[in-house]
Structure formats: structure tokens, C-alpha cells
Amino acid sequence: ARRWDACSRGRGAREARPTMDGMIEDLVGDSILRREKRSGDAGVNSGVEAPLKQQQDREQQEQHGQGQQQEQRQGMGDGGVGLTVMLPDAPLAEPPSRRGGAGVAKAGAPGGTQEVSTNTTPTLLAKAPPGALNKSFAALTHEDVDGVQPGARPGTREPVAPAADEAFPASAAADHLSEHGSAGEPATKVGSVPIKGAQRERALQGQHRRQSSFSGFPTGATPPENPTPHVSSGSEQKQDLGEKHVLAMVGLPARGKSYMAQKLSHYLSFFHGAVVKVFNLGDYRRKLYGPEAQASFFSPDNPDGVAKRAECARCAMKDMIDFLFQESGIKGLARKNVASGRIGIFDATNSTRERRKWISDQLDGLPVKLIFVESYCDDKLTVKNNIWMSKVNNQDYKKVAEESAYRDFKRRIEQYEKVYATLEESELTWVKLINSGQRVVINNIHGFLPGRIVQFLTNIHATHKPLYLTRHGQSEYNLAGKIGGDAGLTEVGRRYAVALGRFAREEIQHGPDGEQRRTRLWTSSMQRTIQTVTHIPHPKLRDGWVQMSHRVYRQLDELYAGICDGMTYAEIEEVYPDEFKHRQEDKLAYRYPRGESYLDIISRLEPLVHEMESYREPLLIVGHQAVLRLVYAYFAGIPRDEAPRLSIPLNTVIELTPNVAGDKYAEKRTVLDPGQVGKNDGQQDPALCDPPSH
Question: Is a pLDDT exceeding 70 seen at residue 327?
Fold first, then answer.
């Protein structure tokens, strides 16, 4: 059934022809169809066969012409493959072999068999209407020739249950049902038009859901025994999934280690489902010994300071190991897509070979991958800016003037420089970023997740640039309350496009000082987003940069609702009540039948986030609600399980600007309201009190 489904939907009938007889034989079962090598037209019966053969000849003549028809008839006469339909009056003496038995099995009881033989070719079978195949597929459950139900016992219409090895899997039956309807319904007659489109999809309710009540087996057949089913939701697993990693930061103070640690933590949690925690030794020091610490405390010649800092490292290491080997306690669908395990980030200077060896020894023998991440920077201007932006106002200097704090922190760096040794150990696994990623050196990096970590680190930087997010203007589907689709803009949506073009020219393409700055523009490939940016200007700057050069990404397309695409939420609740309920229970992991989930969007967004992190210019993204929810949640530091319920309203531009440390974003929302677009306008989501789709 899967082979026929793939051929009919994908490769087409032409490629399906050489094996179509075998496919039909698999669908109907060996007790119904037999393959027989025939010569000439011997054994051709009249009655049932004649009308079908005449119809096939007419179809063949229309499709291929008289000459080709004659050639195919001659081929059959020289030994073409025929299909013999056996309608037994009694059970067969022995089951026929599957696909390849020669000849026709003999009847095992008096009375013989009623044989209907059709001489045809795979070409004719390939162009037979779907109704004809449906007739064969449903032969065990509906009446056929002369009111006799194929497969029935003599004198009855009660179907005979097929043998255990003839039962077909639920997946195959579901695939066939999706094309030809339920096996329990009357078969479509030859030449009829099969149900298509929304009418066919609605007939499938209950057939394609996570916990399906599928019952599409032939009458009398029982599903295959499955004592240990694959449970995809609703169960708690005791063991953690994925490997365990430790990322140990390395570098002098004010080199961006804590910034990188926080960015890595959120990235790995959001896009890879990892359970991540940062263990910052500065936090342990302040908790154990207070926030006030002079530069002398960090001198390698201060035994008391050395001992206290070593105690902080031991406490952090103990907590990190406990974290790595504790159970997650995550239940049900929340575990889905969690394949990156647990990751502990040991955030400290770790600037000596002795400290790095101590870390390796502490983790030796444990099932943990250790990766050192060094941020090396010899650019004095960058270091100076980092001190002023993130150090003079931290908890160590709350009661100290900024100038005094700056001078003291400079002396602290000098104490670390006395013993600092950059990463060179060949036996360790490490990545070194030099001057914010201008150069990257890696050593012993292997595996998928370490490779992703390296790729991500090469893209992040400390340049602060704003990010602008907005949905497309109101579409025709918004107005009709439908989800998905590829509708164009309404009149209100076109007015918003004009307002957005004006806002982009005045607010985005010009910085706070009024000077023009380089800017970028992204949209999805759907026409409503492309129409929304038609009024954004693209002037060329003196250096040749084209402002907001339009880039289209399919990864930004809206969440695909599968069989629910183009429906309203009220229609989904009515036609697919169970799907509607499942979606309300877990919007993050729920996948529309034949559609997508939020987790699927997260997977296709990851490469674009790498690209966004690498940009040093403001970026405007005109997209869709589900996609923008995830982009907004990532940059705002919101956990991904909260993203599906965030509000991204129409006619609103959201500006996210990073703070001086670069690890948090300030938010500003500007409403461009060219028309009346209320909160209940468009795709009102029953799970929310404000708009719309998905």
C-alpha cells in the first residue's frame, strides 16, 4: 500500500507501471489475486471479464492509439502477464506463495473455483481509475459480482478473516484510506471520481492523530499483536536522554566569557532541548565571602585569597556534577526533541594549566564530554569598553564610584595576567576565539553538538544592534478567521504596508543621531509578507550598500497546519475535536496532522538565528505570528515552552535593543494603525485572549 501510495502521489503512474500487478497483489492478498503466466488468450472467461476487458481496450485505444493497442495485445498473446481473480467456494488446500508462485493454486474442495481472468498489462493497470483499485482493496468487506461478497463462505455474505500473515499494517491501511476512503464503505465503481480536497480530508477525521482510534482493518481481521507499543506521550521516563557535556570557560576578566556562557545556555536550551545551567564562580564568591573584593584578593601571592577561590571552585564543581546526574522529571510530550542531554557551564577564568588539569581530574571517569572554551582578546579598546559596560556597575562595585571601580578592575586583570596561560594542551578538547571570533582555533572537536557549539560561537559578538519584528498586514484569511493559506492583503493590510514603509525610512534606516545606517530586511516566501514590504525604500549609500535589500527565506514561512490549513478554529473544533483538544494541551509539541509543530519551526529557524547573531546591522523581519513568537522568545530570553502563547499583534513593530552587557534586550512596541484592527480580528486563537493564528 505504501508503494502504491508513493507512486500515485509522487513519481506518477509511468514509473509505477512495471510493478503495478505486484502492488495490487500485495494490497488484496494472496487469497484473492494470483499471478499467472499465460500464452495467447486461452482460459479467458466470459461474463464478468468481458465488460472489463472491453472498457480497458477502449481506454487503451484512447491513450495510446490503435497501433500501440495492437502491439500490447500481441505482447499478451506471446506470454504477457495476466491477473487471475480467485473467488473460492471453499477454503484453498494450501496458501499460495507470496509474489512469485508459478501457475494457479488448485481448489481444495469440490465445486472448484469461480475464475475471472483479465489479460492486461501494467500499463493498463497504471491508468485504471482509483475507484477500480479501491474495489479490489475493499474486496473483503463489500459486495461484488452478482451480489456475492468476495472472500465469503459458501452461501453467506459473511467475510472470511484473512490469515495472520495476510493482515496489513495500520500505516499501510491509513495511507490507502487517505487516497481511497474507508475499507468499510462501499467501493468506488470503475470510472467514478474519487473524493478529493477538504471533503476527503474531513472524511479522515480520527485516522491521523497521535492517539488514533484507527479501525481500517478488513472485516474479521485483527490488528497485529503489539505487547510493547511505542509510547510517544503521557509517560514519564526515568533516564535522561542524550549525552552530558561540560563547557569550561577560559580567559582573563572582561573578555566576554560570561556573555558567551549566557548566550550558549539559552541557545542550547532553546534550539537543542538541552537542560543547561551556568555555574559562575563570581556568584559563589559573593555568596560565601561577600560582594566586596579588592584587587589584592585575586593575587596569586595571597594564600588566603587563593584558598578561598579554590573553595568556590570546589563548591561549584560539586553542584555541577550533582546537576548533571540528577533526573529531569520531565513528563510526556515535554520530553520530545530533548536529545542533547544535560550541559553544565563552568564559568570562571580557569586561566592556568593547573586549574584546567584539576577540572579534568574531577570529571575523569564520569560519562561526560569536557570542552574548554577560551575567549582571547588583546585589543585594548575592546577590553576597555567591556570594563565600562559590564564591570564598573556590577555587584562588586555597588558602593564604589565608577572611576575607582574602573582602576580597581584594571589592577584585578593585572593579577590574573601574572599566571595566565592560553590554551595549548593538545590532549584536551577546546575551542579558542581570538578577538571576538576574528580567528577561531579548535582542537579535538568531534560530534554534532560540539560542532554546533563551535559554529554558534563563531557567529556571536558584542556589537549591539536592534532587531525589528512585525507581522504582515491584515490578510484575507485574517479577515475570514482562517489559519494558514497564502492569501493576499486586505485594504487595511495594504494601508499598513504604506505605514511600515514610512516607519522603515524614518526610524530604522536612520539611527538615533539622525544619520543613515546600514539596515537589512527579511521576509517569508508567502505573498502577504512580500506585499507588506512593497513600500519600503531601498536607497544606496555612499559606500555602495543597498538599504534593506530584500531577502526571502522559506524558513520564515508560517507554521503549516496540514489538513487544517484554511480552516477556522471553530471548524477545527467541530471536525477534529480530539486534535483541537491535543493542541490546547501542548502547543509546543503538537503537530497538525500532515502539518508542523512549533518544534518543527524551531528546527528550521536555527540556521537563520546563526545568521542573525552574526549581523552587525539592524534587521527588520516581516513574518508570521508563530515564527515571530519563536524569534522574539529566543532574543528576549524566554523559555521556548512559553513561546506559543506570546502575543504578536497585527499592525505593530516590536523593537528589541540589547543592553550594555549584550545579554538582555529592552523592548519597545510601536503601533502603526492605518485602520480598525481589533484584538479579535482575524485568526482568534481560543488558547489566547488576544489574536491569532496558530
Answer: no
Contact 99, 19 (CB under 8 A): no
Active-site residue among 240, 347, 408, 606? 347
Cβ–Cβ < 8 Å for 425, 401: no
Active-site residue, selected from the candidate residues 201, 374, 557, 558: 558
> pLDDT tens-digit profile of 627-685?
999 999 999 999 999 999 999 999 999 999 887 666 678 899 999 976 666 554 544 44
pLDDT the model gives residue 678: 54
Start-to-end C-alpha separation, the chain: 33
Q: What is the mean pLDDT of residues 65-74?
A: 47
Tell me, what's the pLDDT at 335?
Answer: 43
Q: What tens digit of pLDDT does each residue of 11-50 get?
A: 444 444 445 555 555 554 444 444 444 444 444 444 444 5
347 is catalytic: yes
CA distance 169 to 164: 11
Query: Is 558 known to be catalytic?
Result: yes
Burial annotation 139-175 (CB, 10 A radius, 16+ → b, else e):
bbbbebeeeebbbbeeeeeebbbbeeebbbebebbbb
Active site residue 315: no
pTM, two decimal places? 0.66
Show the cell assigned to 457.
Answer: 560561537
Considering 7, 312, 377, 564, which one is annotated as catalytic?
377
